[in-house]
Amino acid sequence: MKVAVFSTKPHDREYFDAAGSDHEFRYFENRLRAETAGLAKGCQAACVFVNDEVDRDTIRELAAGGVGLIALRCAGFNNVDLAAAADHGVRVMRVPEYSPHAVAEYCLALLLAANRHIHRAYSRVRDGNFELKGLLGFDLHGKTIGVIGTGRIGLIFCKLLSGFGVRVLASDPYPNEAAVAAGASYVPLEQLLAESHVITLHCPLTPATHHLIDDEALSRCRDGVLLVNTSRGGLVDTAAVIRSLKSGKIGGLALDVYEEESGIFFENLSDVVIDDDRLMRLMTFPNVLVTSHQAFFTAEALSNITSVTLDNLDAYERGETDLATEVRS
Ligand code: NAI
After folding, report:
1. 194-198: average pLDDT
2. Are 312 and 277 found together in one domain?
3. Is the CB of 183 under 6 A from ligand 1?
4. Does residue 16 carry a pLDDT above 90?
C-alpha cells in the first residue's frame, strides 16, 4: 500500500525504514493541510502527527486523491474532523497508548525543573554565574498536587508521585480505582483548583475541555500555583495565564504544549523572526519553562508508535473492522 507520511522528521523515517514493512512510504516534511493534501494523490493512506491540520477541506482533498485511511502517529485526535472523515468514507486510526510512561515521567521532570529553576541554573553556571538568587523552590513533600485527568498518563503520574509524600487530588468524570489505590482522592474540580500547590493536566482536548484553565479557573487557584501542561495546548487560555503570571497568581508554569504550536514546535526557527507575540511574551518570564512537545519522545515510544501504525496499515489493507485503534465521530 502507498502511504503518504506527513510532518516527517528524521526519526520517523529511521523507525519506519528499520521496521522493514511491505508498504511504500512517501515521506513529506510538509505538514498536512488542505494546500498540501495533493501530495498524497495516489496513496491509499495518509500518516499524520499532532500538528497536521486534518480538517474538512483537507479530508475532501485526501479522499479525492484516493486516500481511505488517516493513520495518526499519536494518541490525541483533536486535529482530525471525524465527522468529515465519516462523510467521505475515510477511516481514522491512532496509536492509543505508545508510552504513557514517557509522558508521565517527562511531566514529573518538567514539574521538578520548573519548581527548582533547573533551566535557569543550567544557563547561569555556564555563564559563570554561581549565584542562587531567584532559584528558590519549595519542598514537594507535604504539598497538594492536583491531577486533572487520570487515564493512562494521569494514573502513571499519580503512581510516580507516591514516593514524594504529597497529597494527590484528582478530577476526572470517570474516576479510576487504580488512581485511588495509588493514593489519589477524587474531588470536584473547584476543590482541586482551590487546594493544589501544583496542577497538572492529563485530559484530552475536546470542545468541553478547551480553555479549561482560563481566568475564572485561575482565580480559584492558590496564589503562586505551579501549572504543568503536557497534554494539549488548547486546554490552557494562554492570554489568561500571561495575565496571571503578571499578577503573580501563577508562581511557575511548565508547558510542553501550546495552543498555537502548529508551525512552530518541531521546527528550527532560530534564524527567523517568530510572529507569535503570546509565545514570545510567555518566554520572557523567568518562571516559565517551555519545551517543544517532546514528552512522548523516547526510544520506546517511537518503537511502539511505529509498530502500532504498521499494524493499523496492515489491518486496513486486509479490510479488518471494529479495531480498538479506530476512532469515529
Ligand atoms: P486517556 O484517554 O487514557 O485519559 C484521559 C483521561 O481524561 C480519561 O480518564 C478521561 O475520562 C479524562 N477526562 C476527559 N475529560 C475530562 C475533564 N473535563 N476533566 C478531567 N478529566 C477528563 O489519555 P492519555 O493516554 O492519558 O493521554 C492524555 C492526553 O495526553 C492525550 O489526550 C494527549 O492530548 C496528551 N498527550 C501528550 C503527549 C505529549 O507528547 N505531550 C503525548 C501523548 C499524549
Report:
1. 98
2. no
3. no
4. yes
**What's the whole-number average pLDDT of the chain?**
97
The answer to whether residues 105 and 228 belong to one domain is yes
Look up residue 316 and give its DSSP letter: H
232 is known as an active-site residue = yes
How many A from CA of 75 to the centre of ligand 1? 9
Instruction: Extract the C-alpha cell encoding 95.
Output: 496509536
Q: Which CATH number characterizes residue 12's domain?
A: 3.40.50.720
Ligand 1 close to Cβ of residue 50 (< 6 A): no
Decide whether any atom of ligand 1 lies within 6 Å of the 100 Cβ.
yes
β pairing state of 69-72 and 288-290: unpaired
pLDDT reading at 329 higher than 90:
no
Does 113 lie in the same domain as 85? no
Percent of the chain at pLDDT above 90?
99
What separation in Å is there between the alpha carbon of 167 and the centre of ligand 1? 21
Q: For ligand 1, atom 14, name the residue with the nearest CA.
A: 203
Domains held by the chain: number: 2
Same domain, yes or no, for 279 and 202?
yes
- In the chain, pLDDT over 70 holds for what percent of residues? 100
Q: Does ligand 1 lie within 6 Å of residue 171's CB atom?
A: yes
Strand segments, DSSP code E, in the chain are 2-5, 24-27, 45-48, 69-72, 91-93, 144-148, 167-171, 184-186, 198-201, 225-229, 250-255, 288-290
Query: Does the active-site annotation cover 261?
Result: yes
Shared domain for 114 and 161, answered yes or no, is yes
Q: Tell me the mean pLDDT in the region 16-42.
A: 97
Q: Do residues 257 and 206 share a domain?
A: yes
Q: Does the predicted TM-score (pTM) go above 0.90? A: yes
Question: Sorting pLDDT into bands at 50, 70 and 90, what band is 43?
Answer: very high
Instruction: Say yes or no: 67 and 187 in one domain.
Output: no
Residue 36 corresponds to which cell in the numbers above? 498540501
Residue 85 pLDDT > 90: yes
Residues 6+ apart with CB under 8 A from 50: 74, 76, 79, 293
Mean pLDDT in residue range 122-128: 97
Q: Which domain holds residue 138?
A: 100-290
